[in-house]
Specification:
261 residues, alpha/beta, Rossmann fold, 6-stranded mixed sheet, 3-stranded antiparallel sheet, 9 helices, 9 strands, 36% helix, globular
């Protein structure tokens, strides 16, 4: 199978305006990773092998022939086993990755929650990380100041906001990250398993906020292994298996087949 890298100008198409256009579209998308065939334990060994041209690679297809449209204002679920390509799909939308082949485009402001620690620095305080993360999302200092109290209220972290982030639990970091990302009023919100980290009360708050986003027309892509959450929040679901679409349809139809399969 032959692959070629698509230039960014071709991979990120800007669709024509119009209410009928989807928010996100994948057209014949493939993502290939190249990994060394031999186990290389040190950077020095890798450099020597590279110079002597003694490195052989194995091509790994993370995604293959993905054709998919996500509608504006839709809460869309992505399910599948570990390694199925779910996170890779979100990274393409977030522009963290480019497709090896095919085209991906997304309309509007994107807020990615792909990793609960992304955009945070463990030695900075929670307060400082709010400003750091908000800046990475494109907010000005004035905008962050206006949102700050609301963000900390939602995350319920006033008692810890001036403590360094390394003292936070994973659940506390998840709450802070979700509160920041979802206060920027994005057009597209990407959520990768972050809802599974918080406690039950926090998950209910997240679900309520997601519902309000949906009511305002925000497009939401949700990756989760919690099928109850998927059935509760998502109308349509895609089931990925080994980088390919196994099944696409209504959550009430796809999820039972995934669970039984």
């Amino acid at each position: 199978m032959n692959f070629h890298t698509v230039p960014d100008s071709q991979a990120r198409l800007v669709p024509p305006p119009g209410e009928s256009e989807p928010a996100i579209r994948f057209e014949n998308v493939a993502v290939r990773y190249r990994v060394p065939h031999e186990r290389i334990s040190t950077l020095k060994e890798y450099a020597i092998r590279l110079v002597t041209r003694n490195v052989t690679y194995v091509d790994y297809l993370a995604l293959h022939e993905i054709n998919l449209e996500i509608r504006r204002g839709e809460v869309f679920g992505i399910i599948g086993k570990n390694g199925a390509g779910k996170s890779t799909l979100l990274k393409l939308v977030a522009r963290v990755l480019q497709p090896t082949r095919g085209r991906v485009w997304a309309r509007g402001r994107i807020a990615p929650l792909l990793d609960i620690s992304a955009g945070f620095h463990p030695e900075l305080t929670g307060r400082e990380n709010v400003f750091l993360n908000g800046t990475l999302l494109g907010l000005s200092r004035k905008e962050i100041n206006e949102k700050f109290a609301r963000i900390v209220d939602f995350a319920e972290l006033w008692d810890f906001i001036d403590a360094p982030l390394r003292m936070y639990s994973s659940g506390m970091i998840a709450r802070l990250g979700f509160a920041i990302a979802t206060d920027v009023e994005p057009d597209i919100l990407l959520i990768d398993e972050v809802l599974a980290v918080g406690d039950e009360a926090f998950q209910h708050k997240c679900a309520d906020r997601i519902q309000r986003f949906q009511d305002r027309g925000t497009t939401i892509l949700l990756v989760s292994h919690d099928m109850n959450t998927v059935k509760q929040l998502c109308k349509r679901v895609v089931w990925l298996s080994k980088g390919e679409i196994k099944l696409l349809g209504q959550a009430c139809e796809v999820v039972p087949q995934y669970e039984s399969g």
